[in-house]
Write a structure and sequence with these properties.
With 239 residues, this protein is of the alpha/beta class. The protein contains 7 helices and 15 strands. It folds into 2 domains: 119 residues, Nucleotidyltransferase, domain 5, CATH 3.30.420.40; 100 residues, ATPase, nucleotide binding domain (Nucleotidyltransferase, domain 5, 2-Layer Sandwich), CATH 3.30.420.40. The chain is globular and about 50 Å long. The relative contact order is 0.17.
Length: 239
């Protein structure tokens, strides 16, 4: 096994429309361009594992695997999969299945949590909100990941959840400007709820935002969703 300074990590970001993968060096920097494939519409457990394995064929060798999945994950097991796979993936040990297929130690975490490891700066209360097919959230306190909360499915306004109001379906229905105003309202509600010091907005739909961001709110690159994968292997950070 290479030394910790030499370890390469395969980082995989599973989304509702696409799956992305890249190999990171020991400092968390991408040593390859990302590869991306469309998320299979009729997803099964076997197909998900087979798709990820196929993506690795064009990538350099790696020593371990980090995966971000859009749902609740406990000890590598998918507990909820609202936007990817549904009940088919519920209670699926994705980490174990990938370890067996790829022959590498594997850790799986909620995708917003993994993105947060790449975006957060490790000081104060920091929140990450990903805007994609659905809505993901992560919370950090001085760099330590807090227990995952599925805030996207919590009531937000007008009897609807955050995902109902600012998910991809709402963006397509409302148009970018109206949708952006809803995102701004969500940011202020989350500010009152969590009193974050900084909030980071990312995900595939962040590029459609049309609003002036408050001083302590900024956009982060989708690349952060990949580079955060190295932090799953910090000795004091267990998924």
């Amino acid at each position: 096994m290479p030394s910790k300074r030499e370890l390469h990590t395969l980082a995989v970001d599973i989304g509702g429309t696409g799956i992305k993968a890249a190999v990171l060096d020991a400092d968390g920097e991408m040593i390859t361009d990302r590869v991306r494939v469309l998320t299979p519409p009729a997803l099964t457990r076997q197909l998900l594992v087979r798709t990820i394995a196929g993506m690795t064929e064009s990538l350099p060798d790696y020593d371990r695997v980090s995966v971000g999945f859009p749902g609740v994950v406990r000890n590598g097991v998918i507990k909820t999969a609202v936007n990817v796979g549904g009940d088919v993936l519920r209670n699926f040990d994705l980490a174990g299945a990938l370890e067996r297929r790829l022959g590498r130690p594997t850790r799986v975490l909620n995708d917003a949590d993994m993105a947060g490891f790449g975006a957060a700066r490790g000081k104060g209360v920091e929140m990450v909100v990903t805007l994609g097919t659905g809505v993901g959230t992560a919370l950090f306190d001085d760099g330590r990941l807090c227990p995952h909360m599925e805030l996207a499915h919590h009531p937000f306004r007008k009897g609807e959840t955050y995902e109902d109001q600012i998910g991809d379906a709402a963006r397509k229905r409302l148009g970018a400007e109206h949708w952006s105003r809803r995102v701004a309202i969500a940011v202020e509600v989350l500010r009152e709820l969590l009193w974050f010091d900084r909030l980071y907005l990312g995900g595939g739909n962040a590029e459609h935002l049309k609003l002036d961001l408050p001083a302590n709110v900024r956009l982060f690159s989708n690349v952060d969703g990949m580079t955060g994968g190295i932090r799953l292997w910090d000795d004091d950070e267990q998924p």
